[in-house]
Structures are given as structure tokens and as C-alpha cells.
């Protein structure tokens, strides 16, 4: 890899893309903060999205929007960003929050002492918004009693701290709210980070827009050749499922080839190779959306890259199935 390639990648990955579901979620969270600032009312929001749809990036954008500040007498943390630990026990979540709040000994004390410290420090640091990313980890713990207990703890903490709280996770997080009615009642506002129904634009067209918003940042021009825009839109949607991370991976794969092969433009043949190298090694021939003999269907069957996350058998559920 050479310096020019590094620079091309830096330029390409440096900006937040303002695609509609991302902007809608950002604006809604912003509204929660403003509502809280002006009235003290804490509303909460659930944001779901498949892997690579931009949930963690959304959290980072909010942290940048309301940055931390170190005042002489205290730290101010307007946005408390907490990735749920994979164990997702009450103690581990409390510890993760304490660490982010600057507690010098997050693992010290009983669970209730840690919880009390979280609430106290959140107030002391003037937290105005809590973002719990990877909320599906609570649900992935499997057993309903554990899910219920963590959910219940979360609910009490939210009532205690009383600031807007956003839960972000894979679509299966909705199941967590299904088992806990009190938590469900607090997360009536919900958004899905996915291209939705738009009367003026198909999902494929929205995906094409995301792609074309990125092409000006490429080091060489994109040339679609004789392909029509609507066909390209279909192929792009099939190749990326409309998820920002896959659109970017595809183009990062293309940039790699530009430098390796000293190309003057990015064509469909380049995207075909990039799909195989950067998205799905088995994606060749009829399974490659940029190949002439592509099957023209979604790649969402078992073992394909866009199999819905709810259908992927997780190790814990496999164990339960065996135990049953
Ligand atoms: N608005 C955006 N602008 C630019 N790049 C983005 C944006 N949203 C997401 N991305 C890119 O997509 C990649 C995946 O995004 P992100 O990690 O936020 O997805 P996620 O929904 O949190 O996925 P997971 O469920 O796997 O954690 C990021 O590395 C980032 O480069
Ligand atoms: Mg994430």
C-alpha cells in the first residue's frame, strides 16, 4: 500500500454520510436532547438496524455533536455512550457505565452500590443523554429471567437518572421489549436504520443515491458503461442490501484495485471483483450482483451475506435447542 492509496482511503472514509434513515435518527435523538433541555421531559427511543447499518456511527456522531468537557471542578459528559458488554449482566453494565463516567474503581462494590454510583455520577457529570449500543447483548444472554432482570434494572436506572435514553441494537432487540412490558412502555418511540418506504423513490434508488454520494470522493471516476441507472440500482442493492457499511466496503475494495492495477476508472467489472474480495468470497458468477449472469435476486438465503440476523442460529440458542 502506498501513501496515495492511504490518502485516497482517508478522504473516502472521513465524512459522515447524510443518508435519509441516518439523518432521521440523528434528528430524532437531537429532538430528545432539546426537549429535555427545554422542559426536563425525558423521552426514550429504540433504534434498530442490521449489522453495518450505522448504529455505532450514529452514537459517535452524537458524542461529537455534544462533546465532553473537562472543567476545573468536574467533567461534563453530555452524552454517555455505553456499548453493552457481551456478558450484559447488571454488574457488567453498571461497571461499563462507571468506567465511562470516570469512576476510578468501576469494579468495586456491590451491584446496588455500583448502581447508586452510576446515578450519582451521571448527575454530577450533567449527563443529558444515554446511548446504550449493542443492546442485543442483553437478549443474546438467552434466558428470559436474566433478560427480564437486566431490563428491569435498566428501567429503574432510567427512572432514577431521568434523562433521555436510546437503546440501539439488531432488530431482535424488539423481543427484549416484548418480554418486559414496563421497558416496552418507555420505548414507544422506535426507528429502523433502513431505507424505508418512500413514495417517490424505490429502495434500490435510495441505495443508488448513497452510492453516488460517495463516487465524488473516489480517486478515479466511476463509469457505469452501458448499464442503465435502474439496473445499476438493482445490482447495487443486491450487493449491499442498502447498508452503508457494505456500500463503503465495496468501494474500498474498488479503490484497492485502482492502486494495485493502476486503473483510470471504476467499472462494473471492478465492482464485480470488489464484491468478491471485500464482501463475499463465494460471490462469483450468478451469485455476484455485478456479473453479467447474475441471478437478479436478494442474497439473503442461508449462508449468504444478507441472511437476516434473526435467522442466524447463535451458539447459545443451539445449546438450548439441544438441551430441550
Ligand atoms: N453515516 C455514515 N457515514 C459514513 N460512514 C458510515 C455511516 N454510518 C456507518 N458508516 C460506516 O459503516 C460502517 C459500519 O457502521 P456501524 O459500525 O455504525 O454499524 P452498526 O450498525 O453499528 O453495525 P453492528 O451492528 O455490526 O455493530 C462504519 O465503519 C462506517 O465506516
Ligand atoms: Mg455497532
Automatic annotation (TrEMBL):
<dbReference type="InterPro" id="IPR008868">
    <property type="entry name" value="TniB"/>
</dbReference>
<dbReference type="InterPro" id="IPR003593">
    <property type="entry name" value="AAA+_ATPase"/>
</dbReference>
<dbReference type="Pfam" id="PF05621">
    <property type="entry name" value="TniB"/>
</dbReference>
<feature type="domain" description="AAA+ ATPase">
    <location>
        <begin position="41"/>
        <end position="195"/>
    </location>
</feature>
<dbReference type="InterPro" id="IPR027417">
    <property type="entry name" value="P-loop_NTPase"/>
</dbReference>
<dbReference type="InterPro" id="IPR025662">
    <property type="entry name" value="Sigma_54_int_dom_ATP-bd_1"/>
</dbReference>
<protein>
    <recommendedName>
        <fullName>AAA+ ATPase domain-containing protein</fullName>
    </recommendedName>
</protein>
Amino acid at each position: 500500500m502506498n501513501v496515495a492509496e492511504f490518502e485516497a482511503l482517508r478522504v473516502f472514509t472521513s465524512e459522515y454520510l447524510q443518508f435519509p434513515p441516518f439523518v432521521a435518527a440523528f434528528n430524532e435523538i437531537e429532538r430528545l436532547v432539546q426537549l429535555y433541555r427545554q422542559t426536563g421531559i425525558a423521552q426514550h427511543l429504540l433504534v434498530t438496524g442490521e449489522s453495518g447499518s450505522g448504529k455505532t456511527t450514529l452514537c459517535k456522531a452524537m458524542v461529537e455533536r455534544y462533546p465532553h468537557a473537562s472543567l476545573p471542578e468536574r467533567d461534563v459528559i453530555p452524552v454517555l455512550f455505553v456499548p453493552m458488554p457481551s456478558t450484559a449482566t447488571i454488574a457488567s453494565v453498571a461497571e461499563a457505565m462507571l468506567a465511562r463516567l470516570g469512576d476510578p474503581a468501576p469494579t468495586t462494590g456491590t451491584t446496588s452500590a455500583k448502581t447508586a454510583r452510576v446515578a450519582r455520577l451521571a448527575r454530577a457529570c450533567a449527563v443529558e443523554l444515554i446511548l446504550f449500543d449493542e443492546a442485543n447483548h442483553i437478549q443474546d444472554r438467552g434466558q428470559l429471567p436474566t433478560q427480564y432482570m437486566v431490563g428491569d434494572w435498566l428501567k429503574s436506572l432510567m427512572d432514577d437518572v431521568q434523562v433521555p435514553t436510546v437503546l440501539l441494537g439488531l432488530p431482535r432487540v424488539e423481543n427484549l421489549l416484548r418480554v418486559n412490558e414496563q421497558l416496552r412502555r418507555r420505548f414507544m418511540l422506535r426507528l429502523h436504520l433502513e431505507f424505508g418506504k418512500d413514495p417517490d423513490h424505490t429502495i434500490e434508488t435510495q441505495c443508488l443515491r448513497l452510492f453516488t454520494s460517495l463516487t465524488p470522493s473516489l480517486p478515479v471516476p466511476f463509469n457505469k458503461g452501458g448499464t442503465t441507472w435502474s439496473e445499476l440500482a438493482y445490482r447495487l442493492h443486491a450487493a449491499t442490501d442498502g447498508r452503508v457499511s457494505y456500500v463503503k466496503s465495496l468501494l474500498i475494495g474498488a479503490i484497492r484495485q485502482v492502486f494495485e492495477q493502476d486503473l483510470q476508472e471504476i467499472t462494473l467489472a471492478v465492482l464485480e471483483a470488489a464484491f468478491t474480495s471485500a464482501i463475499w468470497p463465494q460471490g462469483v458468477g450468478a451469485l455476484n450482483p455485478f456479473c453479467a449472469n447474475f441471478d437478479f435476486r436478494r442474497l439473503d438465503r442461508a449462508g449468504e451475506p444478507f441472511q437476516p440476523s434473526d435467522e442466524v442460529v447463535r451458539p447459545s440458542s443451539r445449546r438450548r435447542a439441544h438441551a430441550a
